[in-house]
């Protein structure tokens, strides 16, 4: 049975990845509600270009202006109240889906099981798009304790479902004010992951990037590994995109972030060398 989905997207200064995030799912969902909360880079222009390319009937876009942390939860509730589909999907401006991932999510939603919640793991970039954190570093105990995970698909059939809290601790609750992910409702898991760019620069303008909530705290998040040269990034990264959109693979070698990581990498290398020398010294005694 085919079930309908509305994607909910809240953005501020996301012009590096918002085109890729939207285009990775737009042809798989029935509706998309996008609220901009005060972008000053090219985010709004990019969203408008997507709408004008044939998605006028699918995307509801509203500019809400600058908002505080408490207002974000109110806006998520407004999105929910505008939703008329079987499910809603949370799609942040830093979340890009592989085709296999979004197709699996749709298949689960359309399954005979008719799940109320669908959770997934994700790959968390840090430093830049070519580096990532090991899976166990970003975990939520109520889901998978061993790997970064979250819930991105919610059924509107959960009795009284609504958004509560404010940015950073907002969540979805049922009519009895129980968090929906805390055991009362069964969670279905998908196998495929999505690509998460939360810890890297999300606006083409460094100063504007840091004006969005929590970006400063993510400025120098450490990474663990580098992707292999033959790594297959989400397919949408290789598609033709408008001139307004930056290449996802472009590096800003003159940014504060790049300079900071250069210092951190130098320090890391020195620590490794010193540890190696210490071990060699101990073995030679």
Automatic annotation (TrEMBL):
Alphabetic keyword roster: Transferase
Gene3D superfamilies (UniProt xref): Spore Coat Polysaccharide Biosynthesis Protein SpsA, Chain A (3.90.550.10)
Stretch forming the signal peptide: none
SUPFAM superfamilies: Nucleotide-diphospho-sugar transferases (SSF53448)
InterPro entries (UniProt xref): Glyco_trans_2-like, Nucleotide-diphossugar_trans
UniProt KW Coiled coil keyword: no
Record has Transferase as a keyword: yes
Record GO terms (molecular function): transferase activity
Top-level taxon of origin: Bacteria
PANTHER family noted in UniProt: GLYCOSYLTRANSFERASE (PTHR43630:SF2), POLY-BETA-1,6-N-ACETYL-D-GLUCOSAMINE SYNTHASE (PTHR43630)
Family in the record: Belongs to the glycosyltransferase 2 family. WaaE/KdtX subfamily.
Protein name, UniProt field: Glycosyl transferase family 2
Annotated source species: Treponema brennaborense (strain DSM 12168 / CIP 105900 / DD5/3)
């Amino acid at each position: 049975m085919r079930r309908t989905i509305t994607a909910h997207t809240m953005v501020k200064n996301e012009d590096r990845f918002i085109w890729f995030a939207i285009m990775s799912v737009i042809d798989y969902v029935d509706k998309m509600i996008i609220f901009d909360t005060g972008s000053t880079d090219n985010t709004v222009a990019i969203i408008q270009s997507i709408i004008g390319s044939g998605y006028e009937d699918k995307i509801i876009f509203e500019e809400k202006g600058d908002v505080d942390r408490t207002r974000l939860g109110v806006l998520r509730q407004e999105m929910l109240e505008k939703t008329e589909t079987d499910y809603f999907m949370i799609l942040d401006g830093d979340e890009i889906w592989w085709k296999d991932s979004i197709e699996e999510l749709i298949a689960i939603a359309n399954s005979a099981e008719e799940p109320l919640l669908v959770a997934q793991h994700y790959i968390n970039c840090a430093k830049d798009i070519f580096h990532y954190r090991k899976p166990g570093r970003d975990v939520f105990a109520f889901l998978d304790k061993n790997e970064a995970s979250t819930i991105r698909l919610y059924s509107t059939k959960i009795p009284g479902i609504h958004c509560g809290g404010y940015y950073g601790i907002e969540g979805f609750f049922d009519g009895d004010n129980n968090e929906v992910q805390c055991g009362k409702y069964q969670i279905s898991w998908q196998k495929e992951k999505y690509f998460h760019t939360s810890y890297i620069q999300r606006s083409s303008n460094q100063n504007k990037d840091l004006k969005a909530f929590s970006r400063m705290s993510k400025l120098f998040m450490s990474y663990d590994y580098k992707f292999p040269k033959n790594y297959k990034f989400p397919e949408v990264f290789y598609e033709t995109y408008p001139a307004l959109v930056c290449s996802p693979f472009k590096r800003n070698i003159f940014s504060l972030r790049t300079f900071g990581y250069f210092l951190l990498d130098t320090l890391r290398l020195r620590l490794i060398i010193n540890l190696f020398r210490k071990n060699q010294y101990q073995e030679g005694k």
